[in-house]
Amino acid sequence: MTASDLIIGSDGLARPAWAATTDLLRHYYDTEWGMPVRDEQGLFERLSLEAFQAGLSWELVLRKREGFRAAFAGFDPERVAEFGEGDVEKLLENPEIIRNRRKIEAVIRNARAVLELREDGGLVDLIWSHQPAENLAPETLADIPSRSPESEALSKALKKAGLTFVGPVMCFALMEAIGMVDTHLLGSHRRGTSGVWGEA
């Protein structure tokens, strides 16, 4: 493990470098990242935020998270599915979010797809059915892949269901964020805390 992979904070706890740079990222890493999300609205929010993050920094998305929640009706898929062109235009003028027409329209389209998925098991079952059989045990950041066979399969399944901005790299990031894979580095104080994989 290189010195830069884990940083010991002033609290004596080890975190990866990306989670040790700002208070916002540190709090997100310590309290949320890698913890299971098993409700439809929670997963729709994570999918939507991952879509907005594409090509940008995750810290920027986190800074605007409350703005996103207000703008997208708390990421209630039933309410977002009813958004029309007028709502899109209003969102494009909203400085509290990332104003990208393709991403905004994708979130609305995805909300409608999520509602249709309810007839076939639902978003939660679809996503969690792609949990890998074995967990990862990365010692260094270089050990963590950007995609996996499971994220590729999840991407295909989500696209088949009508969702967009759900490529295999984005799906792997989602799987990390919701604890489907535990990519906390060995030695991190958060390793094994999700309860999904135990301590390994």
How would you characterize this protein structure?
It holds the Pfam family Adenine_glyco. Keywords: Metal-binding, Zinc. Strand 1 (6-8) and strand 2 form a beta hairpin. The mean pLDDT is 94. Helices cover 47% and strands 3% of the residues. It is mainly α and 200 residues long. It has a domain at 40-177: Endonuclease III, domain 1 (Orthogonal Bundle). The chain is built from ten helices and two strands, in the order ββαααααααααα. Helix 2 (40-53) runs antiparallel to helix 7 (101-117), helix 2 (40-53) packs across helix 10 and helix 9 crosses helix 10 (168-177). It is globular. Strands 1-2 form a two-stranded antiparallel ribbon. The chain has helices spanning 23-31, 40-53, 58-63, 65-71, 77-80, 85-92, 101-117, 122-128, 149-160, 168-177, and strands at 6-8, 14-16.
Overall form: globular
Query: What structural category arises from helix and sheet content?
Result: mainly alpha
Cα Rg: 17 Å
Termini separation (Å)?
17 Å
Write the CATH fold name of the domain at 40-177: Endonuclease III, domain 1
SS summary, helix count: 10
Order of strands, main sheet, comes to 1-2
Element order, helices and strands?
EEHHHHHHHHHH
Biggest beta sheet summary = 2 strands, antiparallel
Which CATH C-level class of the domain at 40-177 is it?
A: Mainly Alpha
Strand content: under 5%
Query: What does the average pLDDT come to?
Result: 94
The residue ranges in which pLDDT falls below 50 over 5 or more consecutive positions are: none
Query: How many beta-strand segments?
Result: 2
CATH architecture of the domain at 40-177: Orthogonal Bundle
Give the CATH superfamily of the domain at 40-177.
Hypothetical protein, domain 2
Secondary structure: helix percent? 40-55%
